[in-house]
Design brief:
Distance between the termini: 50 Å
Number of helices: 16
Largest sheet: 6 strands, mixed
Radius of gyration: 24 Å
Oligomer: single chain
Number of strands: 26
Helix content: 25-40%
Length: 504
């Protein structure tokens, strides 16, 4: 009951501060919701694959397109709001070094109306989030994150007034966050069930608004559950699962949208809100962000100012690869890849262990064939991941591999393991025929294992590691530095698929 009162009071304060009466539309109104999510530091245009000459994405292109839509809508008497669905951080050198500062500056220039806190916003710690909130000229929301003393961690909701419409926006963050970042990053926080929080918050918000939007970083499956469980939500603008929804999904009276990732698209949803409160979808699309869209000068200048500071360091040549080092999210999180094999081998050799197990979520991008720069490596390995050497019984290793095997390829779970020194078969979601070297894995035998420090603290749900650890050595080796050193020593890198992980 105490938590229920906190939820309700938190939303009442957000609504009350706007001084808004109850819902009462004198006539039908129209609204365009523009949205993007999971940009992960991709402020600059980028090439989607090795064969592409043209670039896609780029925040300056998105900003230009947003302004074009706003201008067209103003001439037609249509309101426009711009929403950001979380995970601004992690994925590029610009993000790794500046930790969201240029992103928020660009969002201010673009006129973002609200943003939800994503799980990767915690990767640089709570103090960094506080700095971003202070810099932002728009609310950064999350209704279901609380301090352990019960106080709200962030602003829960906001009411945006545009074109005679009052749009209530409630922010919700995935409760998986403690599993996807270091425990110290979320120390003193609890992540409540977002659906239960919404059940208390929406009825408080709804009477004061003409339209209710849940701005979520939960992923499409949880967005569907939210829509079916909580009445009163007109639109869910989502993120987290990097889903491309060219057509909105409808669950009951709720419309669900998401715009994939990395600034590939700007989502557009055109709505009509009748005087009786009925909400109708008039048009929807994902607009590709490519070279046909001009760049906003103010936003471009902002990105250039930050990227210019990095240019000399990031352009430093470190070596060459004659193969694609595949860190593409759908492949590295579902199967053996060249990049996964290389990084697992490097960790095992550096730590002098029998086995290496690397969570694929630590590998954030591919390295294309040809010359490789420090910037390429930092894009692929943006985390300060330290390699640990631990001793574990074979039973625990079997449990880890079984957990990895249970992840469905289509879910692209970052806990899927890339391996070295071990091979196994995935069949019906189970790990079978596990061999260490040329011998079958023995449950009672003790093996030395190289793994990221993130896994030892229970990251990606691997809570079985720490209790079973017999011995631990902090090698002090960082994966990023390990790869840089390997390139410099070898000059030219090759890696191949070896049948370490076989699906049947």
């Amino acid at each position: 009951m105490r938590k229920q009162l906190v939820y309700a009071l938190f939303v009442i304060l957000a609504v009350g501060s706007a001084g808004l009466p109850a819902r009462a539309l004198p006539r039908a109104r129209t609204l365009t919701i523009l949205y993007f999510n999971d940009i992960h530091g991709h402020l600059e245009p980028w090439k989607p694959d090795a064969k592409s000459e043209a670039t896609i994405g780029g925040i300056a292109r998105i900003a230009s397109l947003v302004e074009r839509v706003r201008k067209q809508n103003r001439s037609r008497g249509r309101a426009t709001i711009l929403l950001q669905g979380g995970d601004v951080l992690q994925g590029t050198p610009l993000s790794a070094v500046y930790q969201g500062e240029p992103d928020i500056e660009c969002f201010n220039l673009m006129g973002v109306d609200a943003m939800v806190i994503g799980n990767h916003e915690f990767d640089f710690g709570q103090s960094n989030i506080a700095k971003l909130v202070e810099r932002a000229k728009f609310p950064i929301l999350s209704a279901n994150v609380f301090r352990t003393d019960g106080r709200p961690y962030a602003r829960a909701s906001t009411v945006i007034e545009k074109g005679g419409l009052r749009i209530g926006v409630l922010g919700l963050t995935t409760s998986e966050t403690p599993r996807t970042t270091f425990p110290t990053n979320v120390e003193g926080l609890t992540f409540d069930d977002p659906i239960q929080v919404a059940k208390y918050a929406i009825p408080v918000l709804e009477p004061h608004c003409d339209l209710v939007v849940a701005l979520t970083h939960l992923g499409v499956p949880d967005d569907r559950r939210l829509a079916s469980s909580v009445p009163g939500i007109d639109v869910i603008v989502g993120g987290h699962t990097h889903a491309k929804l060219p057509n909105p999904e409808r669950v009951g009276n709720t419309v669900i949208v998401q715009a994939q990732d990395y600034g590939r698209y700007l989502g557009r949803l055109d709505l009509r809100v009748d005087a009786d409160g009925k909400v109708t979808t008039e048009h929807s699309e994902l607009i590709p962000i490519d070279g046909t869209i001009p760049e906003s000068k103010a936003t471009l200048d902002t990105v250039a100012r930050y990227s210019g500071k990095l240019k000399e360091r990031l352009s430093m040549f470190v070596g060459t690869t004659n193969v694609l080092l595949d860190g593409h999210r759908p492949t590295v999180r579902s199967q053996e890849t060249t990049l996964g094999n290389l990084m697992a081998d490097l960790a095992r050799n550096a730590a002098h262990t029998d086995i290496a197990l690397i969570n694929s979520g630590s590998l954030r991008a591919s390295i294309l064939p040809g010359k490789v720069t420090f910037g390429d490596i930092l894009t692929t390995l943006p985390f300060n991941t330290v390699v640990l050497s631990v001793k574990l019984p074979g039973k625990t290793i079997r449990e880890m591999l079984s957990m990895s095997a249970s992840f469905k390829p289509e879910d692209q779970i970052g806990g899927f393991l890339q391996v070295s020194g071990v091979r196994f078969v995935i069949e019906n979601g189970q790990a079978k025929e596990i061999f260490v070297g040329d011998e079958p894995l023995e449950d009672s035998r003790i093996y030395s294992v190289a793994l990221p420090d993130f896994l030892l603290v229970g990251g990606d749900g691997y809570s079985m590691i720490a209790p079973a650890t017999i011995e631990r050595i902090d090698t002090g080796i960082v994966l990023t530095g390990l790869l840089v050193e390997h390139f410099r020593n070898r000059g030219i890198i090759s890696a191949q698929i070896e049948g370490r992980i076989v699906r049947r």
